[in-house]
Amino acid sequence: MRVVYEDNHIIIVYKESGEIVQGDKTGDTPLSETVKEYIKEKYQKPGAVFLGVVHRLDRPVSGLVVFARTSKALTRLNKMFAEGEVHKTYWAIVGRGEKLEVRGERSEEFTTIEHWLTRNEKQNKSYAYDHEVPRSKKAVLRYRMIGHSDRYSLVEVQLLTGRHHQIRCQLAAIGCPIKGDLKYGAPRSNPDGSISLLSHRVEFVHPVSKEPIVVESPLPADPLWSAMKMNR
């Protein structure tokens, strides 16, 4: 676990791919418990440590996770996430190709794409449609290409809605599945079981101090990330 921001009300940590944010049926130790132990030891706190989970990342995804250290921060952060006041930027590695250039509606430097997503609980998977279908929810994101290697493109994604597996599902729907994401059509897995999706940047107004908070994630250890040539 790597702490990238910390104060009396909030702690933001870097999640490795493969870690779970909150406990589930696997019984694996979640990141939330690791953070609690870190706080307990650092501040020599007796008894139970309060830590509020305000959002999650899929297990194979790496990057920034925001936790609340106080009940006041938790209540306010929950409201901010629900109302879209926390802005998250993701980076994804996809196969190089022309599909990213031609799909969607051009918006400044970004391309906006819209789908209607349905969720299959048993499969833990979402499906994208270009029109509304029963039990579907509208999903909107925008992206731009910011870098490349010989075989891959680096895409910056901004979510305008928050749906289950939204980035994974929508990029796959335009023919550009994320590297390593077998569930959404990638041709092969990554050796470590990760997918090449990074929660790279988070921006919000601090719920207590009202100061602007902007935090960026380190890159994953996979050398492909650092091999990307950034577009200028």
Tell me what the structure shows.
- With 232 residues, this protein is of the alpha+beta class.
- Helices cover 18% and strands 36% of the residues.
- Strands 1, 2, 3, 4, 5, 6, 7, 8, 9, 10, 11, 12 and 13 form a 13-stranded mixed beta sheet that branches.
- Strand 11 (197-205) and strand 12 form a beta hairpin.
- The longest helix is centred in the first third of the chain and has 12 residues, at 31-42.
List the helices and strands and how they pair.
Blueprint: E1 2-6, E2 10-15, H1 31-42, E3 52-53, E4 62-68, H2 71-82, E5 87-95, H3 99-102, E6 105-107, E7 110-120, E8 125-129, E9 137-148, E10 152-159, H4 166-173, E11 197-205, E12 212-216, H5 223-227, E13 229-230
Parallel strand pairs: 4-11
Antiparallel strand pairs: 1-2, 2-4, 3-4, 5-10, 5-11, 6-7, 7-8, 7-9, 9-10, 9-13, 11-12
Short structural summary:
The protein has 232 residues and is an alpha+beta fold.
Q: What average pLDDT do the residues reach?
A: 92
Write down the overall geometry: globular
- The number of helical segments is 5
The SSE order reads EEHEEHEHEEEEEHEEHE
Q: In terms of structural class, how would the helical and strand content be classed?
A: alpha+beta
- Percent range for helical residues? 10-25%
Radius of gyration: 18 Å
The portion of residues forming beta strands comes to: 35-45%
Biggest sheet record? 13 strands, mixed
Q: Tally of extended strands?
A: 13
The first-to-last residue Cα distance is 32 Å
Give start-end ranges of low-pLDDT stretches.
102-107
